[in-house]
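ok trying this again, last paste got cut off
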Amino acid sequence: MKKRARSAIRPTRPLVKAPMRIGSLDAPAVVGELRKIHEDAEDPDVERMPADDELFGALVYAEKHVQALRSQPPEVQRAAALKRVQLWEYLREQTEIHQVRAVDDARRAGAQWIELAPALAVGAPNAAYNKAKRLKAVQLIDETPQAHPVRRTPEAVLSAERRIALEQATERCAQEAAQRRHELLVPVATRLLEQRESLQCDEDADYWLEEIEAVLPHCQTPLQMLSLNRYLDAALRALLKLEKRTGRSPALTEEARLALAAAVELQQGPGASHEPDSPDSPDAMACGA
């Protein structure tokens, strides 16, 4: 007996193929266009059509009153039907998103998967868990340059959730480091400026220390803090270039040495900056005022 050839189509293909989606859509505007078609067709009940933002009700109305368009040209009827198809697809996508949120709320409220099974129309707790994970795929994107939606498998969703949690933790650490650095910036710059007479400076170092002195009393807004950071960075670059050129530390006293070391440590720590703006750059001028 001849063995039947295996189908080339995998049964899991719908789960692993990146789905196409409607995505963002001005649904009320499309409902408004559908309403206009019914008005132009002199639908006698069009005033009973729900408001443009009542998507489900408007679609049900359009379906029940499709006969009102039968006198219209085929292209008009086709356009109305296509709008309904598009809106139903958009609504389906939105229901998945909101159902995921409802499941998350239920879990946070202590609901067990065995309780969620009948609500999700499945027969077992593990099936409810897997369905919830597949639904969550609509809210996640993968790491491809095109940022496709995550594959609709529990494993792909868990992997994406772990990646996002790691990215969020890394971002929180960076924000915390930046906040700590932000809190140290003013006192470190103040301490360095207090030792200005004990620093050997050239023209460049003097210029940037003057910029620090000008902006320091007004450092409150993020833009002013950014400028102070850049001025401090530029002053340190100038002082360290001077040290390299002369072979001697620009700090003439122990206090000055400690102030300079603290500023260098701050600028080389997490979130440290960068190339300073030129004196005439817009940022510098905005913050120096």
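PB: full thing came through this time. Residues 128 and 139 are 18 Å apart (CA to CA).
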